[in-house]
Amino acid sequence: MLIDAHCHLDHLGMTGASIFLSKLAEKNLEGLVVAGTRSRDWKFYAPLAEQFPSLHVCYGIHPLEISEHWEQDLEQLRMFLPKAVAVGEIGLDFHGMFDRAHISEMKRQMKVFERQLRIAQFYQLPVVIHCRDAFFAIQEILLYTKFDLHRVMFHCFVEDVEAARWILSNGGIVSYSGVLTFKKFGDTHDTAALADLSQVVVETDSPYLTPSPFRGEQNSPDYVRYVAEKLAEIKNISYEDCVAATAQNTRRFFGF
Ligand SMILES: [Zn+2]
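^ inputs. structure came back:
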């Protein structure tokens, strides 16, 4: 059955998320991997994961959710990691930041990203990376921290063929979202075609990035099947094979 390798449920509230999680099997979903992006989210997901074994949680500080107390937040993060499947989503988001006024913000993002990579190494956890307009900086930080690329997943992968080749040749995982179903978005179809089937997973990143034909509506993990359908078409395999392979890759990467 399908696994959504990256989504968010906090917008549903505790009751809404519980109801959703109790109906996963009806929706043909084997499980969900959610990303807690700030301390408030970590406290939201931890009790849900205790109650629902099909919920797997990544804990991290998203590059756009760095508070002024990020040092304390990192200390708190460590408390959640014994139950985490990965540190994430972490990374860099430099969209609209390439000017002098944002230099300190970019530096702060890089520092918090690097610190979380080192924490992941300490706890021997994989990482889920959020990358927006920042691939080269992320690549540089992964290289100088000597992070094992086999333990790196680029979520909502939209980078170019050259970036994909680097990630894939080093054993990393690329995760495709609803963007793959959009008519033509950069190199996404090309990178999906070249990736080995053992290095690809599917996600919704819901409530964001709703796939076609539902663009404009709020996204939901149910819609991960449209991403898997598109991936099967691009890779010229059956939908069932695509679901089986991506679910297996997700379990292997996160270790559940
Ligand atoms: Zn996300």
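The chain has nine helices and eight strands. The pocket of zinc ion is lined by residues 6, 8, 35, 89, 205 (CB under 6 Å).
thumbs up if we can close this ticket
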